[in-house]
Design brief:
The protein has 15 helices and 23 strands. It has helices at 11-18, 53-74, 77-84, 100-116, 120-136, 145-149, 175-193, 197-212, 229-240, 243-254, 285-301, 305-321, 353-370, 373-387, 427-435; strands at 39-40, 46-48, 405-406, 444-447, 450-453, 459-465, 468-476, 483-489, 493-499, 514-516, 525-528, 531-532, 537-538, 541-547, 552-557, 562-567, 577-582, 585-590, 609-613, 619-623, 628-631, 643-644, 647-648. The strands form 3 sheets. Strands 3, 10, 16, 17, 18, 19, 20, 21, 22 and 23 form a 10-stranded antiparallel beta sheet that branches. The N and C termini lie far apart (56 Å).
Length: 651
């Protein structure tokens, strides 16, 4: 990688400034407890060797990060910080008021990458990027470059400017959204490097927010138009123990839907009624799931039963009435929004990649709060299907929306029928960068003398369980087959919980939105040291409590077969249709493999063959005399052509 060539010339001096490792601890502050009963095993303690996930992670680390930095330089996102700080001349560059966040998200993803794959060149590049960002920060901590450069001239015409003041148009200015991504990225960078350079920029900005917003004289009563500052503030609270950050996060949540606080933004921003009264997911899907994640944090940290009740109702509505078979959310291009209950069109499905990522963040928090397998059933479905579909197999092309059908004509992807190399609004490519390197942190969790194996991927984990060092290793070809070999190395009694995926329990989603048209009769099994164990499936997990010994060998078998799925009859678009699955993978048919594309039908009695092929980086294909299907996530990597997930049911 030659990443430094993509940075402005001025960066060369800033590299020297920031390469000094200021690894002083936050010694005068008490780090806050996270509040969750279950804790993820951090990516720094998990090494992934998986034949499915490792190539995707390495593709982002080795190709997409560099590509995105070059794009940010090319389109002026780095220049904006230097112009704002007076080290360059010019007007704001770019078309979005949140272009700053693309740089923050790249830093977050690269920092996650540094945790699992140390890289001095990449760390030096981050030092330089952080130095550039620091130039653009105003003396009191304010940081939104377009407004600093020219407050009367926003980068997007839809941002209202009246007097050219800060905070005057929070509905669409994204000033607080920018801050949220800043905090999220700074927290990860501090964790990855121990350096205070980026964290200090974030804390200075957060302290300004505390002085500016809330109840009290000389403070502004308002909430952000686009949520994420809430989870960012909570992460800063967890690092520093500073209660003001947690208080402000809850203030922003408590005052949504409060007309006495501000002029309401409406359902688009989930600002129509108080959050504790919301029971239907509405509006902009990305804003929504970011807000629900923050509400879950509050429910966990403050044991807030009203917040917990609300997020449970919202989750049930989403999974029961508004989620695609791929795990995607957000049915409508108009407003990038959820549709009505059971409104799930295919050709015009929106399913923003950012929404899939935000939904994984939310469901991960819910699992840490409750430990219920259903949250990882949603996570797995989303990960393998509607999330990684947003990234091409070459790592440099992207879906912003993720349609479930293509006629080769309708330009579903913001003006294109296939993935694009970049967007004027590039939130999805950079969100993929920030998320993918963190995937190893989803695999394992730990609770009270319990280790959860949530996802199946070849990996090695070193887990500290109440001072006891436990090693867990997996070897598997999942998702292409369902055999998983696991070794547990421990010298004490503890509980291991091995997830039994919903698809292997004849459950598509934890709701009646979808169901299998052909239920499987083969049951998952577990054996230890060669002996089959009659382990009960408790709350969706094989639960085994025993005195473990070094090199105890577990074999889990999750029988896989081609399954046909039908949608609830209330989903009008999918009536009389079936989709195909194999294990956790949702399949699609593409015209490039099927000259008879328009005549394809499917039946639950059809017989199929499953074959590993070298196409599309190596996938299992499903075929019979009528069709050939590929994993949905890999579609549109061979040019523009027709595609369907839902196929007409044969008469």
């Amino acid at each position: 990688m030659k990443l430094l060539k993509h940075l402005p010339i001025i960066a060369s001096s800033l590299v020297l400034l920031n390469c000094v490792a200021d690894k002083k601890d936050i010694a005068d502050k008490q780090e806050a407890k996270p509040g969750y009963q279950i804790e993820s095993v951090d990516i720094q303690h998990v090494k992934v060797t998986d034949e499915f996930w490792l190539p995707i992670i390495k593709r982002v680390q080795e190709k997409t990060i560099e590509y995105a930095i070059a794009k940010c330089q090319e389109e002026g996102r780095l220049d904006n910080f230097l112009i704002a700080g007076g080290q360059m001349e010019g007007e704001v560059k770019g078309e979005m008021p949140f272009d700053d966040t693309d740089v923050y998200k790249i830093i977050e993803g690269a920092s996650n990458s540094l945790i699992s794959a140390p890289n001095q060149e990449l760390e030096t590049v981050l030092d330089s990027l952080i130095g550039i960002i620091k130039v653009g920060q105003e003396p009191d901590g304010y940081l939104t470059t377009w407004r600093t450069i020219n407050p009367a001239k926003p980068s997007a015409a839809w941002v209202e400017v009246k007097e050219g003041k800060r905070w005057e148009s929070l509905f669409m200015s994204h000033e607080l959204y920018n801050a949220g991504h800043l905090y999220e990225a700074a927290a990860v960078h501090y964790k990855a490097t121990g350096k205070r350079s980026f964290l200090d920029i974030a804390l200075k900005n957060a302290d300004l927010m505390v002085k500016t917003f809330g109840d009290g004289e000389h403070k502004i009563s308002a909430v952000p138009g686009h949520q994420i500052i809430e989870t960012g503030l909570i992460k800063l609270y967890q690092i520093t123990g500073k209660e003001d950050y947690l208080t402000l996060a809850k203030y922003f949540l408590d005052n949504r839907g409060n007309p006495e606080n501000h002029k309401l933004f409406g359902p688009y921003s989930q600002d129509h009624i108080p959050v504790i009264d919301q029971d239907e997911v509405v509006g902009h899907a990305v804003r929504a799931v970011y807000m629900y994640a923050a509400m879950t944090d509050i429910a966990a940290i403050q044991k807030d039963t009203l917040y917990a009740s609300a997020v449970n109702k919202l989750w049930n509505n989403m999974v029961g009435k508004k989620m695609y078979i791929t795990g995607g959310i957000g049915a409508k291009h108009d407003g990038e929004a959820f549709g009505k209950n059971y409104e799930l069109p295919n050709l015009t499905a929106y399913n923003e990649t950012c929404a899939a990522i935000g939904d994984v963040y939310w469901n991960h928090r819910l699992h840490n709060l409750y430990g219920d397998v259903k949250y990882f059933d949603v996570i797995e479905r989303t990960l393998y299907n509607g999330l990684i579909s947003g990234l091409s197999l070459d790592g440099t092309n992207f879906f912003y929306p993720n349609a479930l059908e293509s006629d080769g004509v309708y330009k579903s992807n913001r003006g294109s029928c296939t993935r694009q190399a970049w967007f004027d609004c590039s939130c999805c490519p950079t969100n993929v960068i920030r998320f993918v390197p963190s995937i190893p942190g989803l695999i394992y969790s730990k609770g009270d003398n319990t280790i959860y194996v949530n996802l199946y991927a070849s990996s090695h984990a070193d887990i500290d369980l109440k001072g006891e060092k436990v090693k867990v290793s997996q070897e598997t070809s999942y998702p292409w087959n369902g055999k998983i070999n696991i070794i547990v190395e421990a010298n004490s009694e503890l509980t291991m919980k091995f997830r039994v995926p919903g698809w292997s329990r004849n459950e598509v989603l934890p709701s009646d939105l979808y169901s299998y048209d052909n239920a499987s009769q083969d049951l998952p099994t577990l054996s230890i040291n060669g002996e089959k164990v009659d382990a009960s499936v408790k709350d969706g997990y094989f639960e085994v409590t025993r005195s473990w010994k070094t090199d105890d060998k577990i074999v889990i078998n999750l029988p896989m077969e081609v399954r046909t799925v039908k949608a609830n009859e209330k989903v009008e678009e999918d009536r009389g249709k079936l989709s195909l699955e194999y294990g956790p993978i949702v399949y699609a048919v593409e015209e490039v493999d099927n000259p008879n594309f328009d005549d394809i039908t499917v039946s639950s009695s059809d017989e199929f063959t499953v074959q590993k092929e070298s196409i599309l980086e190596g996938v299992n294909t499903i075929a019979n005399d009528k069709l050939k299907a590929i994993p949905y996530y890999a579609w549109s990597n061979r040019g523009v052509n027709k595609m369907k997930v839902w196929l007409p049911k044969a008469e």
